[in-house]
Specification:
Number of strands: 10
CATH class of the largest domain: Mainly Alpha
Radius of gyration: 21 Å
Strand content: 5-15%
Strand order of the largest sheet: 3-6-4-5
Distance between the termini: 57 Å
CATH superfamily of the largest domain: Phosphate transport system protein phou homolog 2, domain 2
Oligomer: single chain
Length: 401
């Protein structure tokens, strides 16, 4: 791929491709690229950071092709009005990929920031690893349903790159083939076992620096919270478009305000920390991270703009979001329902196809990636990710029978 000063100069020509298909590709990649970028940062993984930059280049091409096809599709003022939110969605996805690329650049830069962050992370944080499947692996040639990684190890396959193409949200019938680049997510101990089985090579944990800045934990807590909020904003933004849900769109607006506050907190900490180090310039990565997280949440808000402004969006937007195999739903717990008073563990046991991303309590507290023992109560809004069928069943259980 040709680049000039880090910018792709790859030639892009018009191809008659359906706008829905292009939007599906952009949506799936914009969600993955945020996950990859933060994982690369938190776990100091240069291979993951390189994958982010490759995805960013793909997104550049996709957004240009989408704009070209949209220009060809607009035939009158009515089309232009309905397609305007689509342009906003394309621009937002582009901003998300640029922000993720900036996070990857921090990892690939010369600063020791990623190492310091990794050393201060809580052990409960899940890891994400990039594994090249070897021909001699016990997983080679087998479908995911047969391997059943998530049940056996708690490790999930969230993406596969094969012959230069991404397969996102692979299904149970997807076979793993030698040479596949597999993205694995799960607890570090089990992830290391799966990684070694997949590659035939022992998993190496990133090194930890001998010295850290004072009060680094506070900065890391802020970064992790910004990660959680900005990732959730993107998920909720796409869900609000699919269901034409103004309440979801307003959740995105509230989260954007939260990220602004977190950005100010991290910037203030960085300025204070600059007084304690010999080379204050080494802390500029924190400022870049704060800016990137804020840009991601702003972009998520842009995706919801058509809903918040009460503009009738083109049906292709909802269709493109619906095309994804994975749904993000907001489940309100009703008093006396099957979920009222239960725990996250019970939810997972009774609905194995869903994964709780966050709980929004009635007192406006957010619980991100809740643990098994966290309780659910009347009025809680549970944000879940899962298959369409599984999330629909969960919605039924959240209501009073």
């Amino acid at each position: 791929m040709d680049t000039f000063d880090g910018v792709s100069t790859q030639s892009v020509e018009y191809e008659p491709v359906g706008v829905k298909r292009l939007l599906v590709s952009m949506k799936d990649r914009s969600e993955l690229i945020v996950d990859l970028a933060y994982s690369a940062l938190l776990h100091n993984s240069e291979p993951l950071a390189e994958e982010v930059l490759d995805l960013e280049a793909e997104m550049d091409v996709l957004q240009l092709q989408t704009r070209m096809n949209m220009l060809m599709a607009a035939r009158n003022t009515g089309d232009a009005q309905q397609l305007a939110p689509v342009l906003g969605m394309v621009g937002a996805a582009e901003k998300i990929s640029e922000a993720a690329g900036d996070i990857a650049d921090v990892v690939l830069g010369e600063d020791d920031l990623p190492l310091a962050i990794r050393a201060a992370l809580p052990d409960a944080i899940e890891m994400l690893a990039r594994a090249e499947l070897s021909g001699g692996s016990a997983y080679a040639g087998r479908p995911l349903a047969d391997i059943d990684l998530q049940t056996e190890t708690g490790v999930r396959v969230i993406g596969i790159r094969r012959d230069g193409e991404w397969l996102l949200d692979p299904g149970r019938e997807t076979r793993l083939l030698p040479g596949d680049t597999v993205l694995l997510r799960g607890p570090e101990g089990r992830l290391a076992e799966v990684y070694e089985t997949a590659t035939g090579v022992a998993y190496e944990r990133p090194e930890e620096p001998a010295e850290q800045l004072a009060d680094l934990t506070r900065a890391v807590d802020t970064i992790v919270l910004m990660k959680n909020v900005s990732e959730l904003s993107v998920d909720l933004a796409y869900a609000s478009v699919l269901f034409d849900d103004e309440e979801l769109a307003r959740e995105v607006l509230d989260l954007e305000v939260e990220v602004d506050a977190l950005q100010s907190r991290l910037e203030a900490w960085t300025l204070q920390g600059a007084q304690e180090v010999d080379d204050p310039v080494a802390l500029r990565g924190f400022l870049r991270l704060a800016s990137s997280a804020e840009l991601i949440s702003d972009a998520a808000l842009e995706i919801t703009e058509g809903i918040l402004r009460d503009i009738d969006a083109h049906p292709v937007i909802a269709e493109s979001v619906r095309e994804s195999e994975i749904a993000v739903r907001r489940v309100r717990v009703a008093e006396g329902s099957a979920l009222d008073g239960g725990t996250v563990r019970q939810l997972l046991t009774e609905h194995p196809g869903v994964s709780p991303v966050a709980i929004h309590r009635t007192d406006d507290e957010w619980v991100f990636y809740p643990g098994d023992d966290d309780h659910l109560a009347r009025g809680d809004a549970v944000i879940v990710r899962g298959t369409w069928n599984a999330t629909e069943e969960l919605l039924g259980d959240a209501r009073v029978a």
